[in-house]
Amino acid sequence: MKLKEYISFAVANFANGTMGTMVGGYLWQFYSSIGISDRVTSRILAVTRIWDSINDPIAATIIDNGRSPKGKFTPYMKLGPLVSLMTIPMFIKPPFTGFWPVVIWCVAAYTLWETTGTFFGTAFSAMQTVMSRDQQERSNYITIGNLGGKLSGAVPGLIPVALEVLTKYMPRSRFYTLAAVLFGVIGGAAALFGLNLKERVQPPKQQQHFWESFVTFLKNKQLILLWTANISNIVGCISWAANQFFFIHSLGNYGYQTLIWTLTGIPGFIAMTIAPFFTKRFRPSRIVIFANLLGAGCMFATWLAGSAVGYATPLGIALTIGFALISALPGSVRDVAANICSVNTYDWCEWETGKRAEATSMVATGMLNKWIDALGKLAAGAALAFIKFDGRDGVVQTQTTKDGLFFLFAIPQGVAQLISALPYFFFRAEGREFDRVRAQLEERRKAVLETQPETAVV
Question: For residue 342, which of 80, 146, 67 has the smallest C-alpha distance?
């Protein structure tokens, strides 16, 4: 692989992450700023995620059966700039009033963004499974790619500081629109770098219906095992929703969110650069387990310490930041390790079944994740309603609601990390056993290349 490809993968990952961060981090707040209740917001997000899961099999079939001189996934990388720009309409206040017209506008804008994003996101995710056969190169480009992903979370993280300043001069809804325009243009320009990526591992040229490819996915037991870790997102979504409002309503300053993102992002960024040092010496699954257990402990400690000293006091805020810093370093290495585990499962599946079905597998896991996410959004809306949170402009929250936001900010996230660590105790596609699998797989590939060069995996 050339240096240009490593850099392009990181920049494209930055583009992909910027879109996700903008939508995932601020869309709920934008809906709140234009008067949509939290319960309706949770239903809008749930409905759109369910549609996206229905759209996924269509995208998977088209991508997995597609062929071009440059590969299966490369043509769909061209959609990246379009997806970035389609982020903008999601943050435009509807030019009309009325409950149903506004809801239809929001659902339509989100659905168009997700439908197009499915093709780009699936292709981009699958690219990392075919860019190289070499294990060290995989570790390197996954590490560098995650650095781009880390920046994609840090740059939109500056929004809360700007929000504190600029909303004195404009409505919050208009601020989010301007932010979406800015990051949509930045993300679109960055997505162009994805066109430099190359596919080197090409599966046999055979047409498969979605169901046939889906059966291959079901046979990838190691990938399904890792997917079960995502069930924790049903609980984790509650903390995600509380995080949207905890800093401004419970702590009284939205800028603390940027402070935490910046202070944890810098050491996390540094830790990610040395991830190959750890992935060479320790099994990736063990890294994930350690980081998740530490992260869960930090979230529980955050709630206990904040409850004891007062989470809104200077000491309470310092402890919240401190525990976030402690979990950030191993958490960044964990992201690389988890990606390596996921990519390894495709070689394992090819060894067991002779097939890979990368796009369908990516879409199938994504489809299942979106159903989980939909349930999580509904759970988040119910949790905010339970603590009687009202996110409309000008509403003053009660102390009970503020305490509830703090609890939801910390505890569900800790529980989710504990749950997501469990499957990695049983993961096999790594270590000496995986080395033997890869050696046997290479021998098979060579044999097929000698006998059937026109259909061989190269």
Answer: 146
